[in-house]
Specification:
binds iron/sulfur cluster, alpha/beta, 10 helices, Cobalt-precorrin-4 Transmethylase, domain 1, 18% strand, 36% helix, 4-stranded parallel sheet, flat, 5-stranded parallel sheet, single chain, 3 domains, Rossmann fold, 321 residues
Length: 321
């Protein structure tokens, strides 16, 4: 398919984009809890990092809170896809809350790795972004034996690491390229460092980054639909920019600035793993009105990943369409 040389104004839609299996599961959990268990259903933190999703669920009866203190004893309480610390789990138990855990199974996998190695007296290096909800949860699994690094400078500054018993793990939504550089430096400093059995950067993050990189070769502008606090959406912007293409993060079609489109003929539109397809459709509709009447979906990687619902909701999923 010849695209790059064409002067027809075209929207390129890489596939995969948008919702991943962990986000679908987390949103399903809130919807099923609302429909089957009745309200109010409390959700600790944003269930996923997308404003549209949170506002939509709130309009249907979900109550989003920052702290468990805001939840009445005994109420149904959902933990977000990003996971929580053991202290939060304990507090919920002590408060008698009816917990449904929407933590993505791939985040839980990282927690279990951290727990296992810290119990075996390893120093754990977590590569991730400070203050991200997922990182806060993972750090809480082993506060005495885990170090967070976000940059190469953080690797240089590491102290009190046991060089013969050290392992690294990562936040699930990092840039693969940036992380590789940090991992290489860690290996230089600690040649015996243990790597995770398989990358902790999740399949959805990897696939969306690979897809946007491929589209960036053909597009002269990339729009990434996602919220500002969405880690993987921000990484998609960086990946496109690192590939040499102008790229912007937009929350919705309303954020598109006309001057961005001046002289552009091929606009790639993708979405972070927490962004619903309806927002992509609205962006495409807006671009069509601005003359980008040709729309091409480019499937780069096939995805077929599904996660089962947690035990409290098993068997209820068929009731909800
Ligand atoms: S981005 Fe990856 S780790 Fe995060 S919810 Fe989706 S599948 Fe799970």
């Amino acid at each position: 398919m010849e695209i790059a040389g064409s002067k027809q104004k075209t929207v390129l839609l890489p596939k995969p984009r948008g919702f991943c299996a962990g986000v679908i599961r987390a949103v399903d959990i809130v919807e099923i809890a609302l429909e089957q268990l009745g309200g109010p259903v409390y959700v600790r933190k944003e269930i996923v990092h997308n404003r549209y999703v949170v506002d939509d669920l709130a309009a249907r009866g979900a109550v989003f809170v920052d702290s468990l203190d805001e939840i009445p004893s005994g109420a149904v309480t959902i933990f977000s896809a990003h996971g929580v610390t053991p202290e939060i789990r304990k507090e919920a138990l002590n408060r008698g809350l009816r917990v449904i855990d929407a933590t993505c199974p791939l985040v839980t996998k990282v927690h279990l790795e951290v727990l296992r190695y810290s119990r075996e007296n390893y120093t754990v290096i977590l590569i991730g972004h400070r203050n991200h909800d997922e990182v806060i949860g993972t750090l809480g699994e082993a506060p005495g034996s885990i170090h967070l690094v976000s940059t190469l400078a953080d690797v240089e500054a590491l102290e009190n690491v046991q060089p013969d018993r050290v392992v690294y793990t990562t936040q699930t939504t990092l840039s693969m390229d940036d992380t590789n550089a940090i991992v290489e430096r860690l290996k230089q400093r600690f040649p015996r460092i243990i790597a995770p059995a398989s990358s902790d950067i999740c399949y959805a993050t990897q696939n969306r980054q690979a897809a946007v990189k491929a589209i960036a070769e053909k597009a002269d502008l990339i729009l990434v639909v996602g919220s500002e606090n969405s880690s993987n959406s921000n990484r998609l912007v960086e990946v496109a920019q690192n590939a040499g293409t102008t790229a912007y993060l937009i929350g919705s079609a309303r954020d598109i600035q006309s001057e961005w489109l001046d002289g552009r003929f091929h606009v790639g539109v993708t979405a972070g793993a927490s962004t619903p397809e309806i927002l992509v459709e609205q962006v495409v509709g807006d671009l069509k009105e601005r003359g980008f009447t040709c729309v091409r979906e480019v499937e780069l990687i096939e995805e077929d990943v599904h996660f089962p619902l947690p035990a409290p909701l098993e068997g209820l999923e068929r009731v909800v369409s």
